[in-house]
């Protein structure tokens, strides 16, 4: 198994859109209505929105490759790019998206470690993320990686309000 990581650029918008829609749909379509999924996917992952996010200097995207095949990506935010104002001493993991066929191969841990590395390079005191309260596998993974629940916030899937747990880990 060979894992490689590469920072995304504006040249990667089409690939980023494809993997964003594919992984999100694969993970959440069975728990949400088709209408809400369609609304969310069109809003969150249209090319213009992704171009804004990729060009934001307070956000970074990284593709992960498994044996040369794109398997997922990481998005981290600092400063005002964070989806919640957690302060300048925090780094947010907004997305760790892994294609289903590559889950349970250590890619999530690899990307999480990359996020921790970025946080430490930038002298952040904590790293945090939001995870859907019904995503039990992800919650268990983050707990296993040392995150603790420190709050919650609303996440809108189309017109449905859902609750995300905010989970935080202190950087050493």
General description of the model:
The model has no long low-confidence stretch (mean pLDDT 95). By secondary structure, this protein is α+β, with helices and mostly antiparallel strands. Helix 1 (13-28) crosses helix 3. It has one domain (3-170): Gcn5-related N-acetyltransferase (GNAT) (Aminopeptidase), CATH 3.40.630. It has helices spanning 13-28, 34-44, 47-55, 107-121, 136-144; strands at residues 3-7, 59-66, 69-77, 90-98, 126-132, 148-157, 160-170. The chain is built from five helices and seven strands. Helix content is 35%, strand content 34%. It has a seven-stranded mixed sheet, sandwiched between helices. The protein is globular and about 40 Å long.
The total domain count is 1
- SSE pattern: EHHHEEEHEHEE
Task: Please report the distance between the alpha carbons of the first and last residues.
Answer: 29 Å
Q: Give the proportion of residues in helices.
A: 25-40%
């Amino acid at each position: 198994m060979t894992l490689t990581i590469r920072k995304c650029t504006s040249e990667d918008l089409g690939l980023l859109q494809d993997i964003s829609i594919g992984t999100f749909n694969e993970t959440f379509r069975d728990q949400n209505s088709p209408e809400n999924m369609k609304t969310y996917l069109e809003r969150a992952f249209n090319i213009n929105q992704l171009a804004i996010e990729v060009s934001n200097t307070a956000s970074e995207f990284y593709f992960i490759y498994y044996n040369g095949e794109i398997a997922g990506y990481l998005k981290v935010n600092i400063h005002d790019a964070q989806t919640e104002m957690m302060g300048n001493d925090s780094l947010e993991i907004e997305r760790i998206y892994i294609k289903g066929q590559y889950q349970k191969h250590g890619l999530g841990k690899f990307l999480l470690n990359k996020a921790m590395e970025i946080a430490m390079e930038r002298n952040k005191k904590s790293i945090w993320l939001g995870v859907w309260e019904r995503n039990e596998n992800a919650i268990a993974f983050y707990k296993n990686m040392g995150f603790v629940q420190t709050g919650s916030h609303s996440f809108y899937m189309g017109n449905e309000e859902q609750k995300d747990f905010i989970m935080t880990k202190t950087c050493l």
